[in-house]
C-alpha cells in the first residue's frame, strides 16, 4: 500500500510541479533582486539628476521691485521651501501623497489599491503617482506616453529618492507643477491668482491653489469658481482627515471670500525696454552667460534702474516732444557717485524701433565737448579768468594752404576779450578753437579718453566744437566725473546676479579710481554753473537763459548743438542727466521748437526727479579759493563794479589785480590770502595776437 502511494504517477507529477514552481519563484525573485540591484547600481552611477527646469529670469530695479522677465510663455519663479506657507505644504501632501515622508518614491499599497479600483471599474479611475513620481515627470517637460518615458520617469524617481532629501523633492515639485494660465510653480500661481508671494497664502487660498493641478483648465477659479470651490472643499476635508486642520478650520476656510487677481504682476517689459536690452547684452558679453541661461535660467538680475526716475523720463519725453514730430531722443540719467544708471530711454517707441540712441548711436556733441576741453586747459595753467579775444577769426594751416573759420551762434562776437568762464557760459566758439589749437589737437583726444569717451576722436581744429561723434551714455559718464570730484564713472547697470537657487554668480565691486584732479574738477564744475547765471550775460545771453526760470536749485551743465543734433547735459551732486534729440537720418533741425526739446526735457526731468530731495551744493576740496570777479574785466571786483560773480580758482592761480573799468571812491581791498597769488597775465599776452 505504501509502495503504491509512493510510486503513484499523479503524486510524482505533483512533486515535480511544486519543484518547478519553487525554482520558478526563486528564479523570478533572484531576477527581480538582480534587476533591482542593477537599477540601484545604474542609478548610483548616474548620480543625482539635475533639478533645474526652465525658469523665468527676473529683472529687479534698485528698490527690489520687479521690472521685467524673460520666459518661453511659462511663468516660473523658484522659491525655497521655507518661502512657502505651511498651509500649501500640508494641503499638497494631504491631497497628493499623504505617505510622502514614509515611502521611498513608490507607494506600493497605494499602487495596489489603484490597480484594484481600476480593475473593478474596468477603466482608470484612481491615480497612484507619488509626489516624487510627479516631480520626475515634470522634469521631463514632455507628455508623450511611451514605455521609454515611463521607465525613465521610474529611474528618475529612484535617483531623486537616493540623492535628495524629502524636503528638497517637495520643494522641486511645488516649483514645477502646472497651476494653469501659464503659471508653473507655487510662486507664479500665488502671484497670478492672488497677487501675493507663496509664503503669504492663508488656508483658504492654499486649499484652492492645491486643488488646481488635478485639472488646471477645470479647477481654475478663473474658468469656473464653482468647480474651484468644490475642489477646495475636497482638499480641506482631506486635510482634516489627515489631522492637519479641524472641522472648524474647514468651515471657516470654505466660507472665506477670496479675491482673484488673474494677472501676471511680474510681467512689466513695457518699463525701460531699452535698459533691459542693455542688461541682457551685458549678461551675455560681460558675464559670459548663454542665451538659454539668460532666457530660461531662472536668474535673479538686480539692476540700478530707478523706477521713479524712469517713469519721469518716459513721461517728460512724451509730453515735451510733439506727437507728430519725427524727432528722436537718447536719454541717460546716472548717479555720479556710483556710476549707476538710474534711467535710460533709447527712443520714443521701442516697438517701432528698438535701436538704442542712448548707447548705440554716435552723434556730434557740439559744444557739450567744451567742458572736457576747458578741463584740459585748466591742467595747462588756464584759469576761469584767462582772457582771449572773441571776434571773427580765420585759422591757417599747412603754410596757408588750409583755412578754418569757426562761427559763433548768429555770428555774434564780443569783438574784444572775454574770460574763459564767460566763453563757456555763452558758448563762444572762437575762444574754444583758440584754446584747442594752443593746447595741441592731441590734448583733447587724450582728455576725452580720460573722461571715458569710447568713440574715436578726429584730430582736427573743429573737434573743439564737437564734430566727432560720441554716445550719450559716455557723455553722461564724463560729466559725472566732474560732479563726483574726478573719480571714474563708468556706467553700471547690474549690481548682482543670482541663479534660481540664490547662488551669487556676479556682484558689482565699487570702483574708486581717481582720474581727474579734484580741485580742477571743482573749478570746472563751478564754471559750468555759469550757463544758468545771468551775471555772465555779455554780447549774448547765457545759453541756459531759456530754462533758468524752471530751475529751483544749483545746477552745472552745458548745452550743445550742430545742424543735426541738439544736446543738454547737466548735474547736481546727486544726479547727472543727458539728452540728445535729432533725426535718425541726420536731417537738419530747422524748426525752433525742435531745437528746444533737449533743454526742456532735461530741465523737467531734473526738477521732477529731485523734487523733495535735499538741495545739495558742490563742496570745494582743499586747495581751492574763491574771489568776487567782475565778469567783464576778469579781475577782482570792487564795490564800484555793477556786477560781481564769485569764481573759484586753484590756490595760487587766482587774479591779484583789481577791476579798473568802474572807477570810484571805494576802497580796493583783496580778501585776505595766506599766500601771494600767482599772475596769469602770460596767457593774456600770448593770445593777444590772435
Give an account of the 3D structure:
There is one protein chain. The chain is an alpha+beta fold and 690 residues long. The strands form 6 sheets. The chain has a 5-stranded mixed sheet with strand order 2-1-5-12-13. A 5-stranded antiparallel sheet has the order 7-6-16-15-14, with helices on both faces. Strand 12 and strand 13 form a beta hairpin. Helix 3 (86-96) crosses helix 11. The longest helix is centred in the first third of the chain and has 38 residues, at 9-46. The termini are far apart.
Summarize the structure in short.
The chain is built from 24 helices and 18 strands.
Number of strands: 18
Task: Classify the secondary structure makeup into a structural class.
Answer: alpha+beta
Q: What ranges have pLDDT less than 50 throughout 5 or more consecutive residues? A: 1-5, 121-127, 665-669, 672-690
Give the strand content: 5-15%
Percent helix range: 25-40%
Principal-axes shape call: elongated
Radius of gyration: 38 Å
Question: Largest sheet, order of strands side by side?
Answer: 2-1-5-12-13
Overall mean pLDDT stands at: 87
Q: Report the end-to-end length measured between terminal Cα atoms.
A: 147 Å
Q: Give the biggest beta sheet.
A: 5 strands, mixed
Count up the helices.
24
Amino acid at each position: 500500500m505504501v509502495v503504491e502511494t509512493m510510486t503513484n504517477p499523479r503524486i510524482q507529477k505533483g512533486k515535480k510541479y511544486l519543484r518547478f514552481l519553487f525554482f520558478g519563484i526563486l528564479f523570478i525573485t533572484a531576477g527581480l533582486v538582480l534587476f533591482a540591484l542593477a537599477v540601484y547600481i545604474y542609478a548610483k552611477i548616474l548620480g543625482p539628476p539635475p533639478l533645474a527646469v526652465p525658469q523665468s529670469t527676473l529683472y529687479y530695479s534698485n528698490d527690489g521691485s520687479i521690472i521685467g522677465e524673460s520666459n518661453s510663455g511659462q511663468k516660473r519663479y523658484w522659491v525655497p521651501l521655507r518661502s512657502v506657507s505651511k498651509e500649501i505644504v500640508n494641503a499638497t501632501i494631504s491631497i497628493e501623497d499623504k505617505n510622502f515622508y514614509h515611502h521611498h518614491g513608490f507607494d506600493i499599497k497605494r499602487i495596489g489599491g489603484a490597480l484594484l479600483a481600476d480593475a473593478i471599474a474596468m477603466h482608470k479611475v484612481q491615480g497612484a503617482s507619488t509626489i516624487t513620481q510627479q516631480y520626475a515627470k515634470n522634469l521631463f517637460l514632455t507628455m508623450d506616453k511611451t514605455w521609454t518615458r515611463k521607465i525613465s520617469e521610474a529611474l528618475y524617481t529612484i535617483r531623486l529618492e537616493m540623492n535628495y532629501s524629502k524636503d528638497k523633492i517637495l520643494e522641486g515639485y511645488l516649483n514645477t507643477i502646472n497651476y494653469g494660465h501659464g503659471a508653473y510653480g507655487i510662486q507664479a500661481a500665488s502671484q497670478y491668482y492672488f497677487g501675493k508671494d507663496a509664503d503669504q497664502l492663508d488656508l483658504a487660498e492654499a486649499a484652492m491653489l492645491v486643488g488646481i493641478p488635478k485639472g488646471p483648465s477645470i479647477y481654475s477659479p478663473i474658468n469656473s469658481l464653482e468647480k474651484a470651490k468644490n475642489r477646495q472643499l475636497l482638499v480641506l476635508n482631506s486635510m482634516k482627515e489627515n489631522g492637519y486642520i479641524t472641522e472648524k478650520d474647514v468651515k471657516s476656510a470654505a466660507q472665506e471670500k477670496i479675491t482673484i487677481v488673474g494677472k501676471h504682476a511680474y510681467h512689466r517689459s513695457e518699463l525701460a525696454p531699452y535698459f533691459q536690452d542693455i542688461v541682457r547684452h551685458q549678461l551675455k558679453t560681460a558675464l559670459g552667460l548663454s542665451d538659454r541661461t539668460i532666457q530660461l535660467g531662472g536668474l535673479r538680475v538686480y539692476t540700478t534702474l530707478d523706477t521713479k526716475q524712469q517713469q519721469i523720463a518716459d513721461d517728460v519725453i512724451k509730453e515735451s516732444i510733439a506727437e507728430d514730430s519725427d524727432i528722436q531722443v537718447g536719454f541717460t540719467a546716472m548717479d555720479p557717485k556710483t556710476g549707476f544708471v538710474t534711467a535710460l530711454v533709447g527712443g520714443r517707441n521701442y516697438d517701432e524701433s528698438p535701436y538704442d540712441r542712448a548707447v548705440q548711436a554716435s552723434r556730434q556733441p557740439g559744444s557739450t565737448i567744451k567742458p572736457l576741453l576747458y578741463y584740459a586747459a585748466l591742467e595747462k595753467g588756464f584759469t576761469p579768468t584767462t582772457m582771449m579775444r572773441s571776434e571773427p577769426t580765420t585759422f591757417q594751416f599747412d603754410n596757408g594752404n588750409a583755412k578754418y573759420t569757426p562761427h559763433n551762434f548768429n555770428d555774434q562776437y564780443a569783438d574784444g576779450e572775454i574770460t574763459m568762464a564767460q566763453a563757456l557760459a555763452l558758448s563762444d566758439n572762437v575762444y574754444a578753437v583758440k584754446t584747442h589749437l594752443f593746447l595741441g589737437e592731441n590734448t583733447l583726444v587724450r582728455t576725452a579718453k580720460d573722461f571715458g569717451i569710447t568713440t574715436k576722436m578726429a584730430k582736427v581744429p573743429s573737434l573743439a566744437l564737437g564734430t566727432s561723434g560720441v554716445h550719450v551714455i559716455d557723455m553722461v559718464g564724463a560729466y559725472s566725473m566732474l560732479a563726483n570730484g574726478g573719480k571714474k564713472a563708468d556706467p553700471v547697470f547690474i549690481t548682482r546676479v543670482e541663479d534660481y537657487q540664490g547662488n551669487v554668480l556676479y556682484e558689482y565691486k565699487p570702483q574708486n579710481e581717481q582720474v581727474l584732479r579734484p580741485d580742477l574738477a571743482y573749478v570746472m564744475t563751478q564754471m559750468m554753473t555759469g550757463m544758468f547765471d545771468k551775471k555772465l550775460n555779455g554780447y549774448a545771453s547765457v545759453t541756459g537763459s531759456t530754462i533758468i526760470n524752471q530751475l529751483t536749485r544749483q545746477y552745472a551743465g552745458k548745452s550743445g548743438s550742430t545742424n543735426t543734433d541738439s544736446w543738454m547735459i547737466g548735474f547736481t551732486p546727486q544726479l547727472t542727466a543727458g539728452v540728445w534729440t535729432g533725426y535718425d537720418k541726420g536731417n537738419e533741425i530747422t524748426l525752433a521748437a525742435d531745437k528746444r526739446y533737449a533743454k526742456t526735457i532735461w530741465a523737467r526731468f531734473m526738477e521732477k526727479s529731485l523734487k523733495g530731495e535735499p538741495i545739495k551744493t558742490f563742496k570745494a576740496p582743499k586747495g581751492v579759493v574763491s574771489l568776487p570777479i567782475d565778469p567783464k574785466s576778469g579781475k577782482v571786483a570792487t564795490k564800484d563794479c555793477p556786477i560781481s560773480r564769485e569764481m573759484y580758482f586753484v590756490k595760487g592761480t587766482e587774479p591779484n589785480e583789481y577791476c579798473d573799468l568802474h572807477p570810484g571812491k571805494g576802497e580796493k581791498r583783496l580778501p585776505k590770502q595766506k599766500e601771494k597769488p600767482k599772475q596769469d597775465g602770460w596767457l593774456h599776452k600770448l593770445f593777444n595776437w590772435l
